[in-house]
Here is the input.
Amino acid sequence: MTGQAMRVVSGIQPTGGLHLGNLLGAILRWVRMQDEAECLFFLADLHALTVEVDPTQLKANVREMAAALIASGIDPAKSTLFAQSAVPAHPELAWLLQCTARMGWLNRMTQFKEKSGKSREGASVGLFTYPVLQAADVLVYNATHVPVEEDQKQHIELARDIALKFNNDFDVELFVAPEPYISGGTAARVMSLRDGSVKMSKSDPSDMSRINLTDSDEAIVQKVRKARTDPEPLPDDPALLTARPEAKNLVGIMAAISGESEAAVLARFAGQGFGAFKPALADAVVALLAPLRLRLVELRRDEAQIDAFLAAGAERAATLAAPVLAGAYRAVGLRA
Ligand code: ADP
Here is the structure.
């Protein structure tokens, strides 16, 4: 980027707590980005409505996720942290953009096909148009960069297509087409501890498949000890891990935590079995998570403080969004 400050926008759904996959794959990278760019992070509570939610839980989940992010190092003084639903500019702009996006574009989104599964006809319309709200989430702030994982690349492309078509249709220079942002360190894809071929996820029915931010030290040690592995010792060459997904996953977790390459981890453990590797890995995970968990426990004691952080963040976000939203209304002829 030349001449323009970098502004990063990203969101996370406030469903369930954080797990090691979220932390290593997304949140701890966000934490590092705070020193590289102006950052806005939001709890995507409107996106959460695209599938069934428990209305009695939603507000509490937003607060809990905000506390988890702050405990993990998102600093409300450095970054703008807020709930999406507290900034109506998101859904307002999303409506205008739904009239720019084409059916054909959304029909090509692979995530809808995955998420709706066999019940395409029974899926909510919101689940189908979700990528347009996502486009609004970033375009409303003129985000220059959006941190992306592999499965979200298509959605950034869509946001870029919408931005360019809107600018073109209405002959304005309003929206910035955001670039994917791959920084803040390597994005680790953390796999289930029970099956190296599926990602660690909060929706996995087995709690033993994931390490949660709220797990005790003992639970972490036990989950690592019971993690599925193979009987071979660790190799000295990362290429030899390709056919051993569970071993690769554990080595990858160690590398992501220590900031080393897989090769550097293997240089330390080559020739040793999991009996030696797992205790070292458990120590590393505990050392990473225990301080965050303690901060989370502390933060949860003061809900009013969390709400105050979110309110201040929402106010700042709304101020940043207002001129872009007004520009969009003007462009389509609804405001002078
Ligand atoms: P989940 O899959 O547990 O439902 P989300 O879809 O809410 O998690 O993801 C929140 C963020 O965490 C996203 O940026 C996503 O890419 C990242 N993430 C989720 N699971 C993993 C994982 N196993 N490894 C790496 N990143 C992950």
About this structure: The domain at 207-298 is CATH 1.10.240.10 (Tyrosyl-Transfer RNA Synthetase).
